[in-house]
Every structure is written in structure tokens, then in C-alpha cells.
Amino acid sequence: MPGAADITVLIVDDDPVVTAALHAQVNRVSGFKVVGIAHTGQVALAAAHRFAPRLVLLDLHLPDLPGLEVAHRLRRPDQPPTDVIVISGHKESAAVRAAMQRGALYYLVKPTRAGILEQTLLRYAATVEQLGSTGRFVEQQEIDRIFRSLHLDASPRAKSISAATEQAVLDGLAAVEDDLSAYELAEAIGISRATARRYLEHLVERGQVEARLRYGPTGRPQHRYWVR
């Protein structure tokens, strides 16, 4: 049974080999739990109604219903609310556009490497957490950061870059209205200055963080960072 904080996942694909691989990959990601597997569209809809998964990993090619039709029906009022990430072998721009129009949050092309799926799930979890407070108001800057985190942060991280630390750095920058130095950020979130600098430069390269030099009356200019 999933824990209270787990994000529940339904896997929908007509290939048992694919569903077994996805099942293993998802369950290796902390905070996620597979609650159902479906090989047809009708079974997927019934499983979604029964298990109310938070997330559906959906193939577009199913034997009885098009995957996009399943995505559409998952949004009917009689179905529990769920998010959809498409995992498909289709690379045509029309397929990607149609998936977006049917409400898919993201689109992964088969075969999906475990590392890419893990990164996508972690970004999704971070987005769920950021939007989890009912009734909370968010400013445009925070909305921009949430969309960037979910949709644009898809390139593989270096092995020395931890997704959790990366998110902590982004959250630390977003928590203040002004820019921060690497030293100030390190003090704020409890990491070393060298680690803070490495993550900040990494995020600058990815376009998620801005940097500038601040010149003081004496001494060397200081790098300052803020969330775009």
C-alpha cells in the first residue's frame, strides 16, 4: 500500500515488457508508488476510477482506444482528478501537440531511460509540493519558476548534481526578494560555499538562474544570483 505522502501512479501501456520496466523504474523513485497497471484503454479508465491515481503514465497506442481518448476521458467529471504524462514511441510534432491539447503535462519518447524518467518524476513531485497548499496565492515569479521547473529542466544532470540539492538552491533563492551571493545562499540552506557556487553556476548554465557582478567600494567584485 502507498504511504500517505506517496504520489500514486497508474501505468498504461499495451506491452507487458514496457509496463514491467516502468513499474520497476517508478518504484525506485522515492515518494512514488505504482497502484495499477493497465494494458487497454477501458481497463485504464476503470483502474483510474478505482485507485484515483495522482499521475498516469500513458502510452498513445492502445488496442481498444487511442491514448489521447483515454486522456480526454480521464478529465470527465465522473473521474477523479489526475495528471497525465505521455510515454510514447510517436515522435511526430502533431502527436506532441495533440497530447498537450488533451492536457498532458509532459511527453517522453520511448525507449525512456530510467534517469530521464526519474528526473521527470522528481520535477513533477516538486511542482505538486509547490502547488499543494489549498487557497495559497502565488505571484507571477513563482508561477514562472514552477513552469520552468516542470517543463524546461529536461537536460540530464551531471552525476555530481543532486536533484534535491538543486531544488533546495532554487527554493533558497526564491525565498528572498533580492539577489544572494554563494556565501549567503550557503548559510541560508546549510551547504558549503563551494557547493552553493557549483550549483549556482550549473543553474546559470541551464538558464534557471541569473547572475551579475556587484562592485563594492573596495575588494573584488561579487557574483550575485537570483531566480529568473
TrEMBL record:
The organism's place on the tree of life at top rank: Bacteria
Keywords: Activator, Cytoplasm, DNA-binding, Phosphoprotein, Transcription, Transcription regulation, Two-component regulatory system
Modified residues annotated as 4-aspartylphosphate in this record: 59
Pfam family, one: Response_reg
Response regulatory domain segment(s): 8-125
Protein's cellular compartments: Cytoplasm
Protein's UniProt name: Transcriptional regulatory protein
Origin species: Nonomuraea guangzhouensis
Biological classification of the source: Bacteria, Bacillati, Actinomycetota, Actinomycetes, Streptosporangiales
